[in-house]
C-alpha cells in the first residue's frame, strides 16, 4: 500500500468508525460495570454474555448510518473533546515509525527520515486531517501491541519446546483424565511458569511449575487438571484471542482492557464451576491450590501476570477471594429470576444497538466501587467450629489476639485455611507411612518374642476376613477363567493386543483388576450394596460401616421407609396366601398369579412397591391394595377373577422383580448381615438400621435392582472388555483400532500395578509370618494375602483428619484461666499467616492474580 492510499483509507471513514465503536463500547462498558457492581451477578454465563455484548461494540465498525451529533457540529481538524487525549509525536524516532507504518517502504527514504524533521515529513504532517493523525497513531499502537504479543507468544512456544515432560505418574494422571474427556494435550514441567494452557502451532501444552506441582496433593492436582481441561473443552484460548484482538483495536480505551479482563475472569469462573461439579473434595482442593499458588509465586519471585497473553490461558486469574468462596460454597444461592431477566434484556439491548450509530452523550463512569462483601472462605462446618475456637481465645495475649483478628477477615481465613490444609496433608502422609504398624496394633497384640497374637475383641474381624477371603478366591477363579479364555482368542499382532495378552497372563492380574481396578474386592454384591447405601452409610476403611454424621437426617428418613416396608411385609406375608385361596384357578393366568402369591419373596417385593407408592399408614396401604384388586375383579362360580388388563400388566412387572430377587437373595442377605454386625449398637439410629438389614424388604429391594444378576466378576470383566473388543465369526478377538492407544496406556498402567503388588505382597507375607495363630493364616489361604494387602491400603486411606482438632493440638494451649493461647514455640506461624493474609489482601485489591 502506498502513502496516498493509506492516507485516503484513514481519512475517509476508518478513524470515525473506530471512534464511534469505541464510544459505543465505552457507554456499554460503563453501564455494564455499574450493573455488575450493584447487582453482584453470580452466574458466569450471564457475566460472559454481558461482557461479550460490550466487546461486540468494538468490532461493529460498519453500522446503519445515523451520524453522531458532535461529528456534524464540529468539522475541525482537531479531535473533539472526549476522554481521549492526543499528543502529536515530537520524537524523531516516532516520525520514522509513523512514516514506515503508512507505506514509506523505500529503504533510502526511510533512512533519510530517521533523526531529522525534513521537509517531506513536515509536509506529510501538514497535509493530515485529524482523522489521518488519529488513524496513524492508532495504527502504530496496533502494530506495536501485535508485535509484542507475537514476540511473547513465540518466546513461550520456544520455552515450551525446551521443557521436560512431566513425571510418569503426573503424565499418566493427566493423560487418563484428558483422554476420558476426548482431549489430547502434552503435560510439561517448568521452573517458573504455570499452571497454564498454551496453544502451540501444532498442539496444546499443559505447563505446570514442578516445585508447586510437587507440593500439591493428588486431589488438588486432579482439580487443577479438571480446571485446565475445562479451558480446553471451552476453546477459551480462541475465545480470549478474539477478546484480545478487540482490546488491541481499541488499545487507547481503558474500557476495552477492562472488558477483556472481565471476560477472562468469567472464563475462570466457568472452569471453576466445572471443578465444583465433580464434588466438594475437589472444590476444596482447588481452592487450597489457588492459595498455595499465591504463596509459591511470592516465594519464587515470579509474576503471575507475565504468564497471561496471546495463545495462553493461565489458571491464576482474579479475583481470588470471590473464586475461593465459590469453590468452597458451590451450592450457594445464585441470581434471582428477575435479575437474570433484567440483565439478559440489557445485554440484548446492547447487542441490538451494535448495528446502528445513534446519538450518544458521554456516560459518567461511577468512580466508587461497591463495598466489598465479606465472603465465607471456609466450608460452613469448619467455619462454625473455627468460630467456636476463636471465642475461647485469650485476647489479652498479643499474638493470640492477632490470630483472632485473622479469623475476622476473608483474607485471614484464607491464610488459616491454607494452614489447616497443610496440617491435614501432613497427617495424611504420616498415616500412609504408619499404615502397617497401625493395622497390626488395631487387630493384634505384640508379645515379648515379637509375635502378634489374635485378640478376643477382634474375632468378628477375623471371621469377616475369612468370609471375604473365600469369596475373593472364588472371584479369582472366575476372573482367571475369563482372562484365560480372552487371552487364548486375542489377536496380539499389534502393540495393544500384545500388552493386553501380557497382562492377562500375569499372575497378579486378577488381584490388580479385582482389588485395585474394579474397587470391589472381587465381590460384586458388596460393591453394589456399598454404592446403594452410600448416600448415608460409609465404609470406615476397616470393613466396618457407620452412618455419616452429615447424613443422619437422610438416614433417618430412609430407615423410616424400611421400617414401614417391614410392617407391610409382615401383613402381606399373612394375607397374600389367603387371598390366593379366593382366586379362580380355572385358567393359566390365574394359576400363575396364585403361585407367585405363595412365593415367600412376593410379600417383600409388594411391600417395597407399596412403600414407594404409598406414604401413609402401612395397614391402610395393605387395605388399599386389596380394595383395588377387588375393584379390578369379578366374582365367578369358581372364585374371584381379575378382569382389568392394566392389573395383569403391573403383575408381570412384579413377577420380574420376584424372579430377579429370588436367585440372588441368599447372597444379598449374607452380605447385609455382615454389614449389620459392624454397625454400633450404641447408636440408636445405627441399631435401627441393623435391625432392618435382617428384614426381607431391604434385601429384596437390593436383589431386584442388582445390575449383575449372576454376580460373577469374570462375566463383569467380559462385559467391560466387550466395549473395546471385536469378535469375528470364528471366535477370535481383536482390539478396535480406535481404542488401541487407550488400551495400550491402560495395560501399561495395570502392569505397573501388578509389579507394585509383587513388591508389596512380600510385606504382607512378613506380617503373616509374625502372626502367632497360623491356623488363621491357613484359613485365609493364598487369596487372604491379597485381601490383607487391600485392607492395609483401605486402612491408610480411611484416615480422615479433623483440621480444627489438629490446629488445637499444633498451635494452641490452655492457660490458667481455661482460655486458649498460642503456644510460645508456634508464634512464628501466626506471623507467617498475618503476612500471607496481607499479601492476599493486596493482590485481591490490585487484581494481581
Summarize the structure.
The protein is of the alpha+beta class and 849 residues long. Helices cover 66% and strands 6% of the residues.
Helix content: 55-70%
- Beta-strand proportion: 5-15%
Give me the number of helical elements: 35
Number of strands: 15
Biggest sheet overview? 5 strands, mixed
Spatially, the strands of the biggest sheet line up as 1-2-4-3-5
Distance between the termini: 42 Å
Average pLDDT, all residues: 76
Question: Could you explain how this protein is built, in words?
Answer:
The protein has 849 residues and is of the alpha+beta class. Helices cover 66% and strands 6% of the residues. It has 35 helices and 15 strands. A hairpin with a 5-residue loop joins strand 12 (725-727) and strand 13 (733-735). It starts with a helix and ends with a helix.
Amino acid at each position: 500500500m502506498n502513502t496516498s492510499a493509506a492516507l485516503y483509507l484513514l481519512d475517509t471513514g476508518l478513524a470515525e468508525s473506530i471512534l464511534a465503536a469505541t464510544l459505543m463500547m465505552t457507554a456499554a462498558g460503563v453501564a455494564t460495570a455499574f450493573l455488575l457492581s450493584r447487582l453482584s451477578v453470580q452466574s458466569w454465563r450471564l457475566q460472559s454474555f454481558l461482557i461479550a455484548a460490550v466487546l461486540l461494540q468494538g468490532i461493529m465498525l460498519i453500522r446503519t448510518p445515523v451520524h453522531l451529533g458532535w461529528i456534524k457540529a464540529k468539522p475541525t481538524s482537531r479531535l473533539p473533546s472526549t476522554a481521549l487525549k492526543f499528543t502529536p509525536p515530537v520524537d524523531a524516532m516516532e516520525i520514522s515509525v509513523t512514516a514506515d507504518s503508512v507505506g514509506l517502504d523505500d529503504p533510502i527514504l526511510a533512512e533519510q527520515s530517521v533523526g531529522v524533521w525534513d521537509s517531506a515529513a513536515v509536509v506529510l504532517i501538514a497535509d493530515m486531517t485529524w482523522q489521518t493523525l488519529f488513524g496513524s497513531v492508532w495504527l502504530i499502537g496496533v502494530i506495536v501491541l501485535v508485535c509484542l504479543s507475537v514476540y511473547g507468544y513465540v518466546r513461550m512456544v520456544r520455552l515450551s519446546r525446551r521443557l521436560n515432560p512431566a513425571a510418569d505418574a503426573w503424565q499418566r494422571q493427566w493423560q487418563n483424565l484428558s483422554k476420558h474427556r476426548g482431549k489430547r494435550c502434552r503435560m510439561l514441567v517448568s521452573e517458573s511458569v504455570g499452571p497454564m494452557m498454551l496453544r502451540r502451532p501444532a498442539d496444546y501444552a499443559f505447563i505446570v511449575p514442578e516445585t508447586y506441582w510437587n507440593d500439591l496433593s493428588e486431589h488438588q492436582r486432579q482439580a487443577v487438571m479438571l480446571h485446565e481441561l475445562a479451558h480446553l473443552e471451552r476453546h477459551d484460548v480462541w475465545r480470549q484471542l478474539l477478546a484480545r484482538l478487540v482490546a488491541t483495536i481499541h488499545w487507547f480505551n481503558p474500557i476495552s482492557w477492562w472488558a477483556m479482563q472481565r471476560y477472562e475472569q468469567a472464563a475462570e469462573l466457568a472452569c471453576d464451576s466445572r471443578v465444583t461439579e465433580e464434588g466438594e473434595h475437589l472444590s476444596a482442593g482447588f481452592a487450597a491450590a489457588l492459595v498455595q499458588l499465591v504463596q509459591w509465586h511470592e516465594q519464587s519471585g515470579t509474576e503471575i501476570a507475565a504468564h497471561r497473553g496471546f495463545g495462553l490461558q493461565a489458571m491464576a486469574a482474579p479475583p481470588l477471594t470471590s473464586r475461593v468462596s465459590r469453590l468452597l460454597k458451590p451450592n450457594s444461592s445464585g441470581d434471582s429470576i428477575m435479575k437474570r431477566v433484567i440483565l439478559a434484556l440489557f445485554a440484548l439491548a446492547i447487542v441490538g444497538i451494535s448495528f446502528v450509530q445513534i446519538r450518544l452523550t458521554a456516560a459518567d463512569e461511577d468512580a466508587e466501587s461497591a463495598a466489598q462483601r465479606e465472603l465465607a472462605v471456609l466450608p460452613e462446618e469448619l467455619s462454625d467450629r473455627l468460630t467456636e475456637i476463636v471465642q475461647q481465645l485469650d485476647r489479652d495475649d498479643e499474638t493470640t489476639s492477632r490470630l483472632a483478628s485473622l479469623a475476622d477477615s476473608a483474607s485471614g481465613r484464607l491464610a488459616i485455611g491454607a494452614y489447616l490444609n497443610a496440617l491435614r496433608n501432613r497427617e495424611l502422609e504420616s498415616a500412609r507411612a504408619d499404615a502397617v504398624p497401625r493395622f497390626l496394633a488395631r487387630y493384634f497384640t505384640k508379645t515379648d518374642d515379637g509375635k502378634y497374637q489374635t485378640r478376643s475383641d477382634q474375632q468378628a474381624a477375623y471371621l469377616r476376613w475369612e468370609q471375604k477371603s473365600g469369596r475373593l478366591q472364588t472371584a479369582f477363579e472366575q476372573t482367571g477363567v475369563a482372562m484365560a479364555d480372552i487371552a487364548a482368542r486375542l489377536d496380539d499382532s499389534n502393540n495393544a493386543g500384545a500388552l493386553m495378552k501380557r497382562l492377562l497372563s500375569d499372575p497378579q492380574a486378577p488381584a490388580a483388576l479385582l482389588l485395585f481396578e474394579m474397587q470391589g474386592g472381587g465381590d460384586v454384591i458388596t460393591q453394589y450394596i456399598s454404592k446403594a447405601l452410600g448416600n448415608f452409610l460409609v465404609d470406615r476403611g476397616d470393613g466396618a460401616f457407620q452412618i455419616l454424621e452429615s447424613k443422619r437426617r437422610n438416614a433417618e428418613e430412609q430407615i423410616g421407609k424400611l421400617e414401614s416396608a417391614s410392617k407391610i411385609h409382615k401383613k402381606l406375608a399373612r394375607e397374600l396366601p389367603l387371598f390366593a385361596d379366593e382366586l379362580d384357578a380355572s385358567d393359566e393366568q390365574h394359576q400363575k398369579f396364585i403361585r407367585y402369591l405363595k412365593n415367600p419373596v412376593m410379600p417383600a417385593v409388594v411391600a417395597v412397591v407399596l412403600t414407594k407408592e404409598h406414604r401413609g399408614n402401612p395397614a391402610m396401604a395393605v387395605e388399599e391394595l386389596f380394595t383395588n384388586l377387588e375393584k379390578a375383579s369379578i366374582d365367578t362360580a369358581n372364585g374371584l377373577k381379575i378382569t382389568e388388563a392394566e392389573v395383569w400388566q403391573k403383575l408381570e412387572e412384579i413377577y420380574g422383580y420376584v424372579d430377579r430377587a429370588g436367585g440372588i437373595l441368599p447372597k444379598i442377605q449374607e452380605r447385609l448381615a455382615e454389614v449389620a454386625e459392624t454397625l454400633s449398637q450404641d447408636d440408636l439410629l445405627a441399631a435401627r438400621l441393623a435391625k432392618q438389614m435382617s428384614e426381607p424388604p431391604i434385601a429384596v429391594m437390593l436383589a431386584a435392582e442388582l445390575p449383575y444378576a449372576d454376580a460373577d466378576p469374570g462375566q463383569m470383566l467380559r462385559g467391560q472388555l466387550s466395549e473395546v473388543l471385536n469378535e469375528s465369526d470364528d471366535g477370535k478377538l481383536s482390539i478396535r483400532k480406535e481404542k488401541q492407544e487407550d488400551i495400550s496406556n491402560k495395560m501399561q498402567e495395570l502392569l505397573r500395578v501388578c509389579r507394585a503388588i509383587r513388591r508389596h505382597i512380600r510385606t504382607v507375607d512378613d506380617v503373616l509370618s509374625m502372626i502367632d495363630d497360623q491356623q488363621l493364616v491357613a484359613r485365609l489361604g493364598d487369596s487372604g494375602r491379597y485381601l490383607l494387602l487391600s485392607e492395609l491400603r483401605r486402612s491408610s486411606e480411611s484416615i480422615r483428619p479433623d483440621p480444627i482438632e489438629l490446629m488445637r493440638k499444633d498451635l494452641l494451649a490452655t492457660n490458667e484461666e481455661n482460655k486458649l493461647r498460642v503456644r510460645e514455640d508456634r508464634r512464628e506461624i501466626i506471623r507467617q499467616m498475618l503476612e500471607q493474609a496481607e499479601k492476599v489482601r493486596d493482590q485481591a485489591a490490585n487484581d494481581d492474580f
